[in-house]
Design goal:
Elements (H helix, E strand, L loop, with lengths): L3 E5 L19 E12 L2 E9 L9 E7 L6 E7 L10 E10 L2 E9 L6 E8 L6 E3 L15 E10 L2 E9 L5 E7 L7 E8 L3 H6 L4 E10 L2 E10 L2 E15 L2 E11 L7 E8 L2 E8 L7 H7 L1 E2 L1 E2 L3 E6 L2 E6 L7 E5 L11 E6 L3 E6 L5 E7 L3 E6 L2 E5 L4 E5 L7 E6 L4 E5 L7
Parallel strand pairs: 2-20
Antiparallel strand pairs: 1-31, 2-3, 3-4, 4-5, 6-7, 7-8, 8-9, 10-11, 11-12, 12-13, 14-15, 15-16, 16-17, 18-19, 19-21, 19-22, 22-23, 24-32, 25-28, 25-32, 26-27, 26-31, 28-29, 29-30
């Protein structure tokens, strides 16, 4: 392709792979975003976290907060496993709801394994800095031979009542979503499955053994269901279904009309949404890429990041993701492609209607393509985080630039290019 090129020199040498603008741990492990809420004008994001090291063990809930979705403050650890408690094996994923004015975490407490897990409640004041977890599961592991695993409760309202949906399935069998009535959060009433693979659209779009991290919410007159796929012991991407909620006996059923892949990149899993009056926000877990070895992770001392916040929209029958509108506030110095180099660019953004290509260039000239977009779009790079938003797909990946390599941003046409950062924009 005929292209103009901007070579972007390396960010500061201390840890060029560490993002500067994304939520990630200073030390330790990160996976699923949890408990996303906005209370008294402040956004709160929790995430799965091992503070002792960059491995998936001893899972806590870490906590950050923000008033603008740009600058995030570290808060005290919210939830920690309790020896001999209902979450002794880990405080796993869940949500936060405000129940009669009280912020309440609704999460999976695991004991010995993922087959020994139930729903735990924890209570806080409106600062969300001190939590009191309940001493026992509110909902036990189901006594059902077709279900080996349950996890990731998500609470929603429909037709004036409160419900919870829980991811479930069997490690060698079929997935399903379990539905509970929970107008009283302390008393859950089982209402059967909300969705199984008997739904032909769900079977075609979201085949798995276990459906994880369900999110159910309304966009316009449609309901949208987001599912993370646990298939053959492998995390296998994220799908969406759009359709209708209908009454079925004492419970509800989700009837899918269509569906698709929410993000086509390799580093996007376990998203969680926040429904606001005028939009739906979403964050997801961006795990480390296969090329970052366990030795690399151990030396760095941290693993995992959350995506930048995204807005979820329904365009026709297609669910699309877009950078949250606040993210334009990260733009600092603006450069044209012909301007040469972004000096010490830890993070940058490119917007073009022409095809974009992001390439790593070795000193000898060898090229490693990180991303190629045939239709243009919006590209945000922050350390090793690469997020692309295009007219036909969203793509999240990780890219680890060796110290002697350079970023090369190539385009066939005009491009708007910014250095990204926090604080006052550069003159």
């Amino acid at each position: 392709m005929t292209a103009s090129t901007t070579d972007l020199p390396p960010p500061p040498a201390e840890d060029r792979h560490r993002p500067s603008l994304h939520i990630h741990p200073r030390h330790g492990w990160l996976n699923d975003p949890n408990g996303i809420c906005r209370i008294d004008g402040r956004y709160h994001v929790f995430y799965q976290h091992n503070p002792a090291g960059p491995v998936h063990e001893d899972v806590h809930w870490a906590h950050v907060s923000s008033t603008d979705l740009l600058c995030w403050s570290d808060e005290p650890i919210a939830l920690a496993p309790r020896p001999d408690g209902p979450d002794s094996g880990g405080c796993w994923s869940g949500c936060v709801v405000v129940d009669d004015g009280t912020p309440t975490a609704v999460y999976t407490g695991a004991r010995s394994s993922s087959q020994d897990a139930g729903v735990v409640l924890a209570y806080s004041d409106r600062a969300l800095r001190a939590w009191t977890p309940a001493p026992a599961w509110t909902v036990d592991t189901p006594d059902d031979d077709a279900i080996s695993d349950v996890r990731d409760p998500f609470v929603f309202t429909y037709d004036g009542h409160r419900y919870a949906v829980q991811g479930a399935g069997h490690q060698t069998g079929r997935p399903q979503l379990l539905l509970y009535g929970c107008d009283d959060l302390a008393e859950w009433v089982p209402l059967g499955p909300l969705l199984t693979e008997d739904d032909p659209t769900a079977a075609a779009v979201a085949g798995a053994n276990i459906w994880e991290c369900p999110n159910l919410f309304q966009l316009g007159d449609r309901w949208v269901l987001i599912l993370s796929l646990w298939r053959d012991h492998v995390l296998s991407g994220v799908r969406y279904l759009e359709g209708d909620l209908v009454h079925a006996g004492a419970g509800l059923r989700f009837v899918a009309r269509s569906g698709g892949t929410l993000d086509t990149g390799p580093s996007f899993y376990a998203p969680q949404i926040l429904v606001e009056p005028d939009r739906v926000l979403l964050w997801a877990w961006a795990g480390e890429g296969a090329e970052r070895t366990s030795e690399d992770v151990g030396r760095a001392g941290w693993s995992g990041a959350l995506t930048l916040p995204r807005e979820v929209r329904l365009e026709g029958d297609t669910v699309t993701l877009h950078p949250a509108r606040e993210l334009v506030g990260l733009r600092r110095e603006r450069l044209g492609l012909e301007a040469g180099a972004l000096v010490d660019a830890v993070a940058f953004e490119a917007v073009s209607r022409s095809p974009l290509r992001l390439v790593l260039i070795a000193p000898q000239g060898e090229r490693t393509e990180v991303l190629a977009s045939g239709l243009g779009g919006r590209l945000l790079v922050d350390g090793s985080m690469v997020e692309y938003f295009g007219p036909e797909t969203t793509y999240t990946t990780r890219a680890y630039r060796p110290a002697d390599h350079r970023w090369s941003l190539e385009t066939e046409g005009p491009v708007e290019l910014w250095r990204l950062g926090l604080g006052e924009p550069d003159s």
